Prior knowledge:
This protein is α/β, with parallel strands linked by helices and 232 residues long. It has a single domain, classed as P-loop containing nucleotide triphosphate hydrolases (Rossmann fold). It is built from 7 helices and 10 strands. β7, α6 and β8 form a beta-alpha-beta unit. It starts with a strand and ends in an 8-residue tail after the last helix.
Amino acid sequence: xxxxxxxxxxxxxxxxxxxxxxxxxxxxxxxxxxxxxxxxxxxxxxxxxxxxxxxxxxxxxxxxxxxxxxxxxxxxxxxxxxxxxxxxxxxxxxxxxxxxxxxxxxxxxxxxxxxxxxxxxxxxxxxxxxxxxxxxxxxxxxxxxxxxxxxxxxxxxxxxxxxxxxxxxxxxxxxxxxxxxxxxxxxxxxxxxxxxxxxxxxxxxxxxxxxxxxxxxxxxxxxxxxxxxxxx
Length: 232
């Protein structure tokens, strides 16, 4: 479970999050909606300690993130808006292996996790391919595999469809659907709910750094149009 307890955060003198309280349950598929600048990305970066709140607390599995960021990063896999921002190696296999290696796992377990993660995103057998030669959709899948190799309880994605064509978008959606069916919690930030709304258990919307909607999908759609969120 991921908990935000009265979280506030500012960049300098500019408030970005203001008194945000949320709970994301294990196995839940949650959409985090809102226009650009509403605070979505900043909120997500608190999930595994990339940012630390100015006030309030963020907990993963009842443990404050700032007390044990390694545990948080093991439980919460993060996929950034632009996959290139998170790649640390030149080849697919080396990049997906990076996280498990940093957990200090033995080589057999690392190899097993890399194989399993790449199979989950239909990239099996492509460990030696160079990331720079992949399409945008393939890079997005490698980024997801890198997060999955950490065996997280939650997968957090920030605008994962940016720059993807329709075919790549549908491929990523298919994999997310399979993951959530297997029990992985998904927290997906987007300003465009096409195709993802039907997968969601819950929709949270942000505006000016605050939670302004937190409802089941059907009810939430009635409230989102005024927030510059594209509703199907």
